[in-house]
């Protein structure tokens, strides 16, 4: 089994979700929970962005232990000095510096030539290295960059001291096979690549962030960047819980594992949702309200016979102790009978049949028939007899 490191950027890229602004206290609360979750690196923020972000990053670096704390900086001296000031008291600090390398970004955004970008990247990494040993360099919009140019930039920053190279799909444009081939080409052409860790950071504009990250695992990368609940700019980032549970559930295929304490996933997801105000869609994989719920009679019957029929992972793995059988209009006799038995409400056959007909009438009016509803149905029956 290969060990894949989880770089969580909920507090930096995730916080860049439109409408989200966490204060230092809230950031710290999430950071402590990310520590319990077992992430390897926690990107605490972008200190130059605002005094509040600087304060939040600083407190996290001072207080959160047993996890590497990273701060983001553009590839310039002012950002790097500021990032370092924010994380210098950390147990295991990392400066994460970046510059765009795609023709589109270099021409329109940076208005710099490729040679100038190469020079700026190398200078930035050199400066960061004079402060701390762990340096991550990201080539923004890497997936739309030229392979030879990118390999040249990466070879330069490795020589300048970078320890992690990140190859982001910044605009979520890549597709899994193409991205994996691109990563392999970059790794083949970069000098000194064996000395560093390779990372990916995928955005979800085409709904492919998780698929692209998993394809990257197949291509041999060492680190995955992601956010809790997949929050982030535009359509968000690769969702931590989906990546972790895909690797965990399909170990046979990926032959890779993470250090994530999966039983902390649901708690972390709820905390992030509550503090950011970003609701989780009901059918969201792993952490959605319906992710482990079964409503149809056929599925419920299968589940009651053997859970493996319709459940590829147990909700308890992510720390959920939920009732997975939801009683509604699609439920069959078996599920209703089982729930009554679980509630200690044993009925003979004729009473059960009468109750089941009233259950169906109620289920047509209500989306979900609850335990309280079942007790009422039984009570009504008692009153009639
Ligand atoms: O999406 C991106 O390219 C980024 C970088 C700063 C890593 O967030
Ligand atoms: Zn990003």
From TrEMBL:
Mn(2+) binds at residues 13, 201, 203, 237. It catalyses: 3-methyl-2-oxobutanoate + acetyl-CoA + H2O = (2S)-2-isopropylmalate + CoA + H(+). One of its GO terms (biological process) is L-leucine biosynthetic process. Keywords: Amino-acid biosynthesis, Branched-chain amino acid biosynthesis, Cytoplasm, Leucine biosynthesis, Manganese, Metal-binding, Transferase. Pathway: Amino-acid biosynthesis; L-leucine biosynthesis; L-leucine from 3-methyl-2-oxobutanoate: step 1/4. GO terms for molecular function: 2-isopropylmalate synthase activity; acetyl-CoA C-acetyltransferase activity; manganese ion binding. Its EC number is 2.3.3.13. Its cofactor is Mn(2+). One of its GO terms (cellular component) is cytoplasm. It comes from the Bacteria. The keyword Metal-binding applies. Homodimer. Belongs to the alpha-IPM synthase/homocitrate synthase family. LeuA type 1 subfamily. Catalyzes the condensation of the acetyl group of acetyl-CoA with 3-methyl-2-oxobutanoate (2-ketoisovalerate) to form 3-carboxy-3-hydroxy-4-methylpentanoate (2-isopropylmalate). This is 2-isopropylmalate synthase. It comes from Desulfosporosinus orientis (strain ATCC 19365 / DSM 765 / NCIMB 8382 / VKM B-1628 / Singapore I) (Desulfotomaculum orientis). The lineage of its organism: Bacteria, Bacillati, Bacillota, Clostridia, Eubacteriales. The chain holds residues 1 to 385 of 510 of the full protein.
